[in-house]
Amino acid sequence: MKFLLITLITHLPDPVSGVRRTTNETFRKVVDDAVLGEELGFDGYGVGERHERPFISSSPPVVLSHVAARTSRIRLFTAVTTLSLLDPVRAYEDYATLDHLSGGRLELIIGKGNGSAQRDLFAVTPEDQWDRNAESYELFRRLWREDKVTWSGRFRPPLVDAEVWPRPLQQPVRVWHGSATSRASVDLAARYGDPLFSANVTHDIEPYAALVEHYRERWAAYGRDPADAVVGAGTAGFLAARTTQEAVERYRPVFEATVAQQRRAGLVPAFETLEDYVERSSALVGSPAQIVEKVLRYHERFGHTVMHLHADGAGLTPPQHRANLELFQAEIAPVLRRHIPDPPWPDAPGGTAPTYAAEAVPAAAAPVPVG
């Protein structure tokens, strides 16, 4: 199993101290957390993309470029690249450049994104966002693979023998599809033979497991070998301690601050109490043995071979944050690696990203459903 650290770069006061870092301090911490992740042996570091409060993650290529300059081994993920909002040509240029600057360590997780404010900012509607995501990915995918592209669609001007530079270092970059609520993104991943990354952060296991199951069904329906399907999954939070009671009490202010923020935003929390959250959500809060048991329980439903933890360490001091991640690598990750196989994974920076199945889209593939 492989392990990622991921941040959405949420710009909020710390749930314990009440102190909010400056924007500059927050960005510096994001980079420092990536350096720490590499030092401790994590396999990847991801930066989200959001274009609305309370996030300041509107430019992941820039952030990841700085991370690339400060690291040498860890793979660099987007989480997610919001293709429904972006011009795929411009996104390709940014990420092909980043692929070179990182020595071929780039991995992309794409998705339509969420939030009404960022849709309004980019003039995208709820009705067309899935069509935009699918169309943008069609062009984005071709740009990585073809030296000249002729293409036309609904949402951007057509291309005729277009050459887009630079050509990527990886041939091509690996693209995962972020999955949270809709079968559209799941079907898109299966159609193209791409891996799936389940968000798995807001609700209990059932809705996410249903989408993963649908992915595997669609994968087979497109004529692909079920053994080639690759799944990653997120976690809602992480805090490990020697005893479950210690972990739960240390995590309590983080949970209470998150619930308060959701209510201020007019949302209904999926879990009303911390005890229910620890039991039924994907959060990994407890002793090492308890955390291993929960991950293995989720693996029975998802079959995932990649997992992410939140990189921010909200509510923890820097020494506590480091100790938390060290405990994961010392007592949790080794057990999970013994029980869960690795996905296809480049052995060293600068290599070609592995393929999972046939590159070509099946000739009889049905249109991608919307909704």
Mean pLDDT: 92
Give the H and E element order: EHEHEEHEHHEEEHEHEEHHEHEH
The total domain count is: 1
Outline, from the CA principal axes? globular
What does this structure look like?
- With 371 residues, the protein is α/β, with parallel strands linked by helices.
- The chain has a single domain, classed as Alpha-Beta Barrel (TIM Barrel), CATH 3.20.20.
- 43% of the residues lie in helices and 14% in strands.
- The chain has eleven helices and 13 strands.
- The strands form three sheets. Strands 1-2-3-5-8-9-10-13 form an eight-stranded parallel barrel, surrounded by five helices.
- β6 and β7 form a beta hairpin.
- α1 packs across α2, α2 runs parallel beside α3 and α10 packs across α11.
- The longest helix is centred in the last third of the chain and has 22 residues.
- It starts with a strand and ends in a 32-residue tail after the last helix.
- It comes from Microlunatus flavus.
- This is Flavin-dependent oxidoreductase, luciferase family (Includes alkanesulfonate monooxygenase SsuD and methylene tetrahydromethanopterin reductase).
